[in-house]
Design brief:
It is a single chain. The chain is α+β, with helices and mostly antiparallel strands. It is built from 6 helices and 9 strands. It has helices spanning 2-22, 41-46, 66-71, 73-77, 100-116, 168-184, and strands spanning 30-40, 48-49, 52-56, 80-84, 94-98, 124-131, 137-142, 145-148, 151-154. The chain has a 5-stranded antiparallel beta sheet. A two-stranded antiparallel sheet has the order 2-3. Strand 8 and strand 9 form a beta hairpin. Helix 1 runs antiparallel to helix 6 (168-184). The radius of gyration is 20 Å and the shape is globular. It starts with a helix and ends with a helix. Residues 12-22 and 158-177 have low confidence and may be disordered.
Length: 185
């Protein structure tokens, strides 16, 4: 029985290595899946939407235009956040996570794809990533199901093939782990 447990351990280790290296993510922390409006930091810092200055940013993120997210260089350069809904004591949304450079790039691609399908404003995404205790969500993966203009939409063009990130060195490491496990057992 002890030999079987060791074999299971080595196989589990190999699969964990595949999953981590296939996605290119080496960050540790809690895996979370969250949904929320995507907003650029420039509009948040301004307090009003850049292309609609009469709208308070964190009061009405559903009014935030996709044009602002994808076409305004200063908004894109400020990077994006994922907003949390208002709590019981406030009417304002708040920043749940910063999306960082790679998350911003993925959100930008998804928003561009949504716009090609006619989306105009209020981009809300479902994302999975690693919460490492900082404000920035790491290793962000966007789900194809989004909400824009208050309606559900599926955007598959933004998907990236994370399996293509698997390097031959990773395959070698996996094979070695499995071989060691077989010989030890």
């Amino acid at each position: 029985m002890n030999k079987m447990l060791k074999l299971v351990f080595y196989i589990a280790t190999a699969f964990n290595l595949v999953n981590t290296q296939a996605s290119g993510c080496t960050t540790t922390g809690k895996v979370v899946t969250v949904s929320g409006f995507v907003m650029d930091n420039l509009c948040i810092d301004r307090g009003t939407l850049l292309d609609n200055p009469s709208v308070t940013t964190l009061l009405n993120p559903e009014m935030h235009s996709i044009h602002c997210l994808v076409d305004v260089k200063s908004c894109v350069d400020s990077e994006y956040t994922l907003l949390a809904p208002p709590n019981a004591t406030s009417k304002l949304y708040s920043v749940k996570y910063q999306l960082g450079k790679s998350g911003t790039t993925a959100a930008l691609k998804q928003a561009q794809s949504a716009r090609l399908k006619g989306a105009v404003k209020g981009y809300s995404a479902n994302v999975t990533g690693i919460d490492d205790g900082t404000m920035e969500l790491k290793c962000v993966v966007f789900n194809d199901n989004i909400k824009v203009d208050g309606k559900d939409m599926v955007v598959t063009e933004s998907k990236t093939n994370t399996a293509s990130a698997l390097h031959s060195n990773s395959v070698y490491q996996i094979v070695m782990i499995l071989l060691v496990g077989v010989f030890i057992v």
